[in-house]
């Protein structure tokens, strides 16, 4: 066994000692604003402070770009630290020594294997850069790069290299053992033949290292120099270290070059990113042989408030822009902006910036089409809006897309714009949109030959007057604000059979807090680091940040739990009543229904 995972108990204690205000203030000066602290957000450009830090909740939230988290999350985002390093840094600040739990041999082996993969990729990176300087064939690559206007400084900053022609240059240099060959194979640097031999994947190409948020090389993109060498661009395949749907070429370099990034531009090629950087446009990134994903955009909007997509102006470019728009719908909200820049025929960002320079290129970018304009323009193609039929068709086309937007001001403004174009009443459109987003019941139809029973009695309102989902959210939000409320919850077994969304998570959190009464809000959130529940809990905490704790929290919390327990009773009444006629119930079900419906109301 070897030292590995940081014990949960240590992280709990660390979060009780760390002050998020001190952590952030040491890096971004904060000003007192009532009970909270404020600053201009370090993750996007702004002039009016919307970045709020709560000392009582040990949480920060930006009301402009949506960035939020604990002290650990801040270090991970602001300092680009992985989780263990962020914990180490916080422990150093408060004078604690980080212990390590033993890890299994399997975990130790996996960690060692990954470390070996990072090392072999770093060696590959160094090999390609050396070949660009020294290999006899490099003159062709150097001439190409100079012809594209790149300086040696920019080429060095982006780590540009050269893979010479030949089947085994890298293999001979680095594949000196069976282990090294397997590492090169796992990272996609080699391809295995049917007979078990290997050959280099990248040959006769200019090489662009793809770096993760820590600057480690995780993959490569290769651009051919000759038109006879196959595909123009060749990317590393998916590997244990590289996932195309998550990574963006040039993002690490942009973050190194710029502290405040007011916008990011998504282009299509490595050379576009590097050429724009040569002209001091340092905010360009490129996807890696795939369409821009929701995960890409979520990552970009953690850094900036504006994303500009740059595409060719032809049919293929506009189709690609529409795919990007569709993937962006779930992440679009107020405070975020997406625009689409379509280039003239025959131009790409590289050629355009060399012709027009930085000022001319950015001036053209200023004319980029707004998300909403491109959205409605594309969907009303081939529709005659002068007729009621045409306007109804537009509404039918648009509604499924609007249903993907997060409820809020931005979605409401898109509905308003649709109402203006279609000349429809906003209330009617909103009702249509709610019908679009309402989940269908698992079984809504009965066989035609079975008579429909009398409609079941209407569900009585719960004690708080809210629907069950709101009760769960309310209880979770109150726990995040004041974890000590869990000690007042009593026996939580009473909630385990409540069949409502989120109840299992609520019960789990209650158990954690009852077993760990010293746990604060930040420590609780860290228990769900990188889990499927983390985004939901982080969002809930963001909604609590400006709410003050008061004496009414405990009654509200207990009332929500009681109402959830009562809902289990009401659900059973409904499930029996839905059968309608008593003749459809078994004797046991009849007895149970009588017992449930005659039970004292306060019981």
Describe what you observe in this structure:
It is a single chain. The chain has 603 residues and is an alpha+beta fold. The chain folds into 5 domains: 2-93, DNA Primase, Chain A (Alpha-Beta Complex); 107-235, DNA primase DNAg catalytic core, N-terminal domain, CATH 3.90.980.10; 261-273 and 287-369, 3-Layer(aba) Sandwich (Dna Topoisomerase Vi A Subunit, Chain: A, domain 2), CATH 3.40.1360; 380-437, no CATH class; 468-597, DNAb Helicase, Chain A, CATH 1.10.860.10. Helices cover 47% and strands 12% of the residues. It contains 24 helices and 18 strands. The protein has a 5-stranded antiparallel sheet. A hairpin with a 5-residue loop joins strand 9 and strand 10 (198-200). Helix 1 packs antiparallel against helix 21 (521-527), helix 11 (270-278) packs across helix 14 (349-365) and helix 16 crosses helix 18 (426-437). It is globular.
Write the layout of secondary structure elements.
Elements: E1 2-3, H1 8-17, H2 20-25, E2 31-33, E3 36-39, E4 51-54, E5 59-62, E6 68-69, H3 71-78, H4 83-93, E7 102-103, H5 105-134, H6 138-147, H7 152-157, E8 161-163, H8 169-174, H9 178-186, E9 190-192, E10 198-200, E11 205-211, E12 217-224, E13 233-235, H10 251-257, E14 264-267, H11 270-278, E15 284-286, H12 294-301, E16 306-312, H13 315-328, E17 337-343, H14 349-365, E18 369-370, H15 371-379, H16 388-402, H17 409-422, H18 426-437, H19 468-481, H20 503-515, H21 521-527, H22 534-544, H23 553-577, H24 587-597
Parallel strand pairs: 14-15, 14-16, 16-17
Antiparallel strand pairs: 1-7, 2-3, 3-4, 4-5, 5-6, 8-11, 9-10, 11-12, 12-13, 17-18
Helix pairs in contact: 1-21, 3-4, 5-6, 5-9, 11-14, 16-17, 16-18, 19-20, 19-22, 19-23, 23-24
């Amino acid at each position: 066994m070897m030292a590995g995972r940081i014990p949960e108990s240590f992280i709990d204690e660390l979060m009780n000692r760390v002050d998020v205000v001190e952590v952030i203030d040491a890096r971004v000066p904060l000003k007192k604003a009532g009970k909270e602290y404020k600053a201009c957000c370090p993750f996007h450009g702004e002039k009016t402070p919307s970045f709020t830090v709560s000392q009582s909740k040990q949480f920060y939230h930006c009301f402009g770009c949506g960035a939020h988290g604990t002290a650990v999350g801040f270090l991970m985002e602001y300092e680009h630290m992985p989780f263990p390093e962020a914990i180490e840094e916080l422990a150093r600040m408060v004078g604690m020594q980080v212990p390590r739990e033993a890890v299994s041999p399997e975990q130790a082996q996996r960690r060692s294997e990954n470390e070996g993969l990072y090392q072999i990729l770093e060696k590959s990176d160094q090999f390609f850069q050396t070949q660009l300087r020294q290999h006899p064939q490099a003159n062709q690559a150097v001439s190409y790069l100079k012809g594209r206007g790149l300086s040696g400084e920019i080429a060095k900053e982006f780590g540009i290299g050269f893979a010479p022609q030949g089947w085994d240059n890298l293999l001979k240099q680095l594949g000196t053992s069976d282990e090294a060959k397997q590492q090169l194979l796992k990272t996609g640097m080699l391809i295995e033949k049917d007979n078990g031999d290997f050959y280099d994947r990248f040959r006769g190409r200019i090489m662009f290292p793809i770096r993760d948020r820590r600057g480690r090389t995780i993959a490569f993109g290769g651009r051919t120099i000759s038109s006879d060498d196959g595909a123009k661009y060749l990317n590393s395949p998916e590997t244990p270290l590289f996932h195309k749907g998550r990574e963006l070429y040039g993002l690490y370099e942009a973050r190194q070059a710029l502290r405040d990034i007011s916008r990011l531009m998504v282009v299509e090629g490595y050379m576009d990113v590097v050429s724009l950087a040569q002209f001091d446009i340092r905010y360009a990134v490129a996807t890696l042989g795939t369409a821009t994903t929701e995960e890409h955009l979520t990552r970009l909007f953690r850094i900036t408030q504006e994303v500009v997509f740059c595409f060719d102006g032809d049919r293929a470019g506009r189709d690609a822009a529409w795919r990007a728009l569709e993937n962006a719908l779930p992440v679009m909200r107020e405070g975020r902006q997406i625009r689409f820049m379509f280039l003239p025929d025959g131009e790409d960002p590289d050629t355009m910036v060399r012709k027009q320079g930085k000022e001319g290129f950015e001036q053209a970018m200023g004319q980029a089409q707004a998300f909403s304009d491109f959205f409605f323009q594309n969907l009303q193609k081939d529709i005659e809006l002068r007729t009621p039929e045409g306007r109804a068709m537009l509404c039918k086309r648009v509604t499924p897309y609007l249903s993907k937007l997060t409820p809020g001001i931005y979605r409401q403004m898109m509905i308003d714009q649709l109402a203006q174009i279609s000349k429809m009443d906003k209330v009617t459109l909103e009702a249509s949109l709610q019908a679009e987003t309402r989940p269908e019941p698992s079984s809504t139809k009965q066989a035609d030959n079975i008579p429909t029973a009398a409609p079941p009695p209407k569900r009585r309102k719960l004690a708080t007057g809210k629907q069950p989902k709101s009760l769960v959210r309310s209880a979770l939000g109150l726990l995040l604000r004041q974890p000590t409320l869990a000690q007042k919850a009593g026996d939580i077994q009473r909630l385990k059979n409540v069949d409502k969304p989120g109840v299992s998570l609520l019960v789990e959190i209650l158990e954690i807090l009852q077993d760990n009464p010293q746990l604060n809000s930040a420590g609780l959130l860290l228990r769900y680091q990188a889990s499927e529940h983390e985004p939901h809990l982080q969002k809930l905490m963001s909604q609590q940040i400006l709410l003050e704790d008061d004496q009414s929290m405990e009654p509200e919390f207990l009332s929500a739990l009681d109402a959830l327990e009562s809902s289990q009773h009401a659900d059973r009444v409904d499930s029996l009543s839905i059968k309608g006629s008593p003749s459809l119930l078994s004797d046991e079900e009849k007895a149970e229904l009588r017992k449930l419906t005659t039970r004292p109301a306060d019981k």
